[in-house]
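Our collaborator T.R. sent over the components below with a one-line note: 'Predict the complex.' Nothing else. No constraints on interfaces, no templates requested, no preferences about which chain binds where. So this is a plain run: every listed entity goes in together, and whatever single assembly comes back becomes the starting point for the next discussion.
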Amino acid sequence: MSAVYGPIRQIAAALAWILGIGLSAAIVALSRPDFGLAELVEAHLEESGVRHPVTAVLLNYRGYDTLLEIAVLLLAVLGILAFRPPGPASIPDAAPDSSPVLAALSRLIVPLIVLAAGYLLWAGAHRPGGAFQAGAVLAGGGVLLRLTGTIPSFESPNAWLRVSLVVGLGVFLAVAALPLFEGSRLLEYRTAEAAMAILVVESALTVSIAAILATAFIGAAPPRIRCMSPSRPAHSAEGERAGQS
Amino acid sequence: MIGGGLIYAMAGVVLFAIGLYGFIIHAHLVRRLIAFNIMGSGVFLVLVGLPQRVAGTPPDRVSEALVLTGIVVAVSATAFGLALVRRLYDLTGETRLPNDPRPEP
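Returned assembly:
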């Protein structure tokens, strides 16, 4: 445990208590809210191209947020790939668990994951769901396949993976720029085209988010697949505990 | 009248305070990342709960969308932070910042 003891601990505790109580008091004392932006969101839902208000906010009203969000995701995964441990990635992968249950289960679950992701993507237009949820579910499937040894790690991302990483941001930028040619402003879809624009953007986003999240997991660790092996005594009990949890 | 959202906002404040405490007292970078994520979860809870602190108020879709965006950014930033921590560990064998004034455990 590398924690601090002594007076700093007490000061930190006092600070946390004061902050907690102060913020709670501030929240309780807040005046009654007006309806804020909820009415505006509902009023323009017809023009947004989707029927679910959160999706409308994410991809139409506040499209800038989502555009920058996918850019942040891409930057993060580029950083992760840049900081991956050096050394040959040709260390053979640790033998996957030979249990037939695991293999059969992952073969059963992964198609269901893809199906669920497709549903989430489609459902985003009219109920909770959307590109980020679908992408996260897909990425979970990718992580599962990697952990069961079904898909290999990589030394450097191949062309398909590179395209998958950037297609979300690229398509989003292209669709966002389309209104510029019609004399409108960035991300100002026309009502008639909004539904199609959002569907295209969300589909591309799903692919990219799944690729980015899975790469953040898989691509970060190629030489470390066998970190539990006895040939690395430097990784003492702490490293093994982290690997098991 | 008090709405259910107030409970979430309060829980968010508590989470934020707990995360801040952990962030201050821990020197291990992974623990600090976890504490920072707990603080972030508290902020998200406040953002979602606060607009509904009075019963009968419709949910604020804009803050919900902001929280969705925030969760994704927090996940990617955490992943990048973990990559940095591991790189530091590879290079120096340290799990804390080199100029951390806190005493060795």
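Summary for T.R.: Chain B touches chain A through 53 residues (CB under 8 Å).
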